[in-house]
Specification:
Elements (H helix, E strand, L loop, with lengths): L4 E5 L4 H12 L3 E6 L14 E4 L5 H7 L5 E4 L6 H6 L1 H22 L3 E7 L22 H19 L3 E7 L1 E3 L11 H10 L4 E4 L5 E2 L1 E3 H13 L5 E5 L5 E2 H12 L5 E4 L14 H7 L7 H16 L1
Parallel strand pairs: 1-2, 1-4, 2-3, 4-5, 5-6, 6-11, 7-10, 8-13
Antiparallel strand pairs: 9-12
Length: 309
């Protein structure tokens, strides 16, 4: 779909800020709505309009969505662990917030919505890599809210004549990721090492993940938005498995610190191996991740070092 005017919910966040920059560089008009509870003004690139507000506030959302061709819906509470502790808040933001956005899309006559879903919809894998036909049995409230949002979009958007794509994101890493004990194992490990703290590894560390660079994820959103595909959920990952212990090895080697590892009990609701089968993304929108961890990890380290310093 050819679009000129885009709204990014959560556009001051980690992925949203990178997507905003990509779209601005492509000559698009970009508006961002973010309540800045986690997002940062500095993530919003020059040239993008920032509306400070919450997607649960229908009045603010109604204003933000005016004269928009497409909505990239990224605003969310992003944490499997925190969702277990704050399940009502997770549902309020991730599900009720999504329904608010979907209604606003309908009322404003927006042509397309691209939704940031998650690998968490799959739960514990029956097989790996997981394709989009893998059973969806989320094991966390976060996964439930993401899957429920997908279902609402897949039912209501076609009824209202709205194109949609749900992107199931795997483990995204990169510069500008929020430092939090609940988000992003690579960022958490880097900050711990730079601070001279031992690494806390949940479980045995053998759980394998599909780590994808944030620039590749932003590109996947742009491709999903600009293509003519609709009515589909797609994995966004690399298809390359890396276990958590290997991430620890890479970072300790790069940072040359005398850091020890401390293994703690696994996180309730967190799946075991989680690797994307990206065949459908490749065939439907010609998406393939370009960046490997070994090529980008130094960039992420330096960004985190600048924050610590």
């Amino acid at each position: 779909m050819d679009f000129k005017n885009a709204l990014i919910t959560g556009g001051a966040g980690f992925i949203g800020g990178h997507l905003a920059r990509l779209l601005i560089d492509a000559g698009k008009n970009v508006r961002v709505i973010d309540n800045l509870s986690v997002g940062n003004r500095d993530n919003v690139p020059e040239g993008a309009e920032l509306v400070i507000g919450d997607i649960r506030d229908s009045t603010v959302l109604e204003q933000a969505i005016k004269n928009v061709d497409i909505v990239f819906h990224l605003a969310a509470k992003v944490s499997i662990r925190l969702a277990v502790e704050e399940f009502q808040n997770d549902a309020d933001i991730n599900l009720i917030g999504t329904l608010n956005v979907l209604k606003a899309v309908r009322d404003a006559g927006v042509k397309k919505i691209v939704y940031a879903s998650s690998m968490a919809v799959y739960g514990n894998p029956d097989y790996s890599p997981q394709d989009e036909n893998h059973p969806t049995r989320p094991t966390s409230p976060y996964g439930v809210s993401k899957l429920a949002s997908e279902k609402y979009i897949s039912i209501l958007a076609p009824l209202w004549g709205i194109d949609y794509v749900n992107l199931r994101l795997f483990n995204t890493y990169g510069p500008r990721q929020t430092h939090s004990p609940y988000v992003g194992v690579i960022t958490i490990f880097i900050r711990s090492i730079l601070s001279g703290e031992n690494l806390k590894i949940f479980g045995d560390g053998k759980q394998r993940r599909d780590f994808i660079y944030v620039g590749d994820v932003a590109r996947a959103f742009e491709m999903a938005g600009s293509s003519d595909i609709s009515g589909i959920s797609l994995n966004v990952g690399t298809g390359i498995p890396t276990d958590v212990n290997t991430i620890a090895d890479i970072l300790i080697d790069r940072l040359d610190k005398g850091i020890e590892r401390r293994h703690t009990p696994p996180v309730p609701g967190e799946p075991g191996d989680s690797i994307a089968n990206i065949s459908l993304s490749q065939s439907k929108m010609n998406f393939t991740a370009r960046c490997r961890i070994e090529e980008k990890i130094d960039e992420v380290i330096e960004w985190n070092r600048s924050c610590v310093d």
